[in-house]
Amino acid sequence: MLEALEKRKITCQKTYPIIVDGRGYITSEILSSYDPADKNRLVGVTFQPDKLLITCAEKSAEHAGQSWRKLPWEKRAEYLLKTAQIVREKKFEMAALLVYEISKTWDEALGEIEEAIDFLELYARAALKYGKDTTRQPYVQAECNLTRFRPRGTTAAISTWNFPFSLSVEKIAASLAAGCPVLFKPAEQAPIVGWHTTKYFLDAGISPELLAYLPGGKEVGNILITLPSVTQISFTGSEKVGRLIEKSALETSGKLGIKNSDLEMGGSNSLIICPSADLDEAMAGVIRSRFSFNGQKCSALQRLILVGSRDDQWIKNFISRISLGSLKIGHPENPENNLLTAVIDGAAHQRITERIQRISQKGIDTIEKADIPKGGWFARPVVFYNLPWEFYGHPDIQEEVFGPVLFILNASSLDRALEIANSTRYGLTAGIYTGSTGDIDYFLEKIQAGNVYINRPIVGAMVDRQPFGGIKCSGKGKKVGTKEHLKFYLNEMTISQNLLSRGLKTS
Predict the structure, then answer these.
(1) Which stretches within 103-190 are classed as H helix?
(2) Where are the alpha helices (DSSP H) in 270-341?
(3) On the CB side of 10, how many CA atoms lie within 13 Å of its CA?
(4) CA-based Rg of the chain, rounded to a whole angstrom?
(5) For residue 111, how far is the Cα from the chain centroid?
(6) Model confidence over 440-489: pLDDT tens digits?
(7) What is the value of pTM for the model shown?
(8) Residue 475: alpha-carbon gap to chain centroid
């Protein structure tokens, strides 16, 4: 890992062209990427495509898709498995890039790469499942009824910056496994990770026409979602952008009809601690759930809800855990900085700072870490507690922070805690620490979230083991990291044949 980090330092300030048809293109619109933990370190430069270049990518994808969809499912799976092998070989190279481009710690970066490999392996096996016709009611003698899955068409894959490698691989792998070409727009905060992601697939032998690398901002995204040949849009990001994508998809029907959209958006996630919980175990879970990767996870804890009369002692213990000197903050190239690093960019830093300032002006009790490094977008971890109950529904508490800010709320009962947890319009993750099976049963009955966790942190969902996806305004309830997710990219055809038909000849 140290060798990979040193090599990445040396190769900084490299230019990465747009990739269409396997060829590199340079435009006048430059997109520069800097190290969030060292604002003066240039990670790389890429370019934003114009509409003409995007249209060329669309035409190529549409043309190549005709052959790709006819390729045996087993062959498509082989390309994914070969990509997985390339990712294994490039593991430390990509981890180093994640460290410098988005300020991920060593363990977070390496874990993301393992997740990407899991996605590739899973969807390769899913291709074998959906490549076979399913016979329905085989005991019927007079007719044969089958379900067959066929590729929908071109995918617009719009990825996020906080998991720029694994979630980009997820979208591309699922689409290609299903027989659909991809127009890929990485997050504008992580375009260099996106370039390497594209190259891994192309190096595995995927036809260059099937996958285009189209970095840029919202202008590129707006063009992609309105392209006539795009039949589905896979998006991970904010609720605001997700809603716009959903609206556009419905209003701009493509050549093959209404476009599908798969939206994974944000959360305002809660963790409930009951009086019967193991408090040391719960405290460790809270710190990981809120502060790992600076809280820049859609699954991260935001509202900690303490039930009963043990809250004062818990808060005292918590203060000692996160007070000055107990949480290290610094550049993630140092493995000792394994929890808190820099937030992604200046805009994020400003949003987090403004939120903290607004709440602090209300005179709410605060725990904060004072020593923050200079030279990067380092945000001070802050915990607000003893909030007045009338403030629990305030937008500054309810809306996603996406940074190292935690709110400690109090509830007289588990029933009241669940009311607080469910009061937000989001429904992504939630958790409970308790020693009572009765509490667990009641929690599972009442909580409104797509992923729930019991006596463990609420972050760190693993592919296929914990399928991930939210409800309410966090998503449509669909789950990534399952074989069934491939159905998003497929049309389901029902075939019914009369076996008693006369005069049927074999040709």
Answers:
(1) 106-130, 166-177
(2) 279-291, 311-322
(3) 7
(4) 24
(5) 13
(6) 999 999 999 999 999 999 999 999 999 999 999 999 988 999 999 999 99
(7) 0.96
(8) 12
Q: Which residues are catalytic?
A: 264, 298
Q: What is the DSSP letter of 392?
A: T
Percent of residues in the chain assigned helix, strand, coil, to nearest 5: 40, 25, 35
Q: Which helix (H) or strand (E) holds 262?
A: strand 260-264
Beta strands in 12-120 (DSSP E): 14-15, 18-20, 23-25, 30-35, 38-47
User: For residue 342, what are the contacts with CB-CB under 8 A and spacing of at least 6?
Assistant: 36, 37, 103, 294, 331, 376, 377, 378, 379
Token pair recorded at residue 475? 């998503």
Identify residue 323 by its one-letter amino acid code: S
Q: Look at residue 369 and give its three-state secondary structure.
A: coil
Which tens digit of pLDDT belongs to each residue from 185-202? 999 999 999 999 999 999
Q: CB under 8 Å to 170, separation ≥6 — which residues?
A: 116, 119, 480, 481
Domain 269-454, second-level architecture: 3-Layer(aba) Sandwich (3.40)
Cα angle, residue 163 at apex, residues 75 and 201 outer, rounded to 5°: 25
Confidence of residue 322 (pLDDT cuts 50, 70, 90): low
Cβ atoms within 10 Å of 203's Cβ, excluding its own: 13
Q: Does the structure show a pLDDT above 70 at 507? A: no
Domain ranges of the chain: 2-265+484-494, 269-454
> Which residue has 């249209």 as its token pair?
55
Rounded Cα distance, 398 and 395, in Å: 5
d(CA 430, CA 421): 8
> How much is the mean pLDDT over the chain?
94
409 residue type, one letter? L
Q: Is the pLDDT of residue 312 over 90?
A: no
Residue 481's contacts (CB-CB under 8 Å, 6 or more residues apart) are: 118, 119, 122, 170, 461, 462, 463, 464, 466, 467, 468
The domain made up of 2-265+484-494 is a member of CATH 3.40.1000.70: no
CA distances from 296 to 168, 191, 266 (A): 17, 18, 10
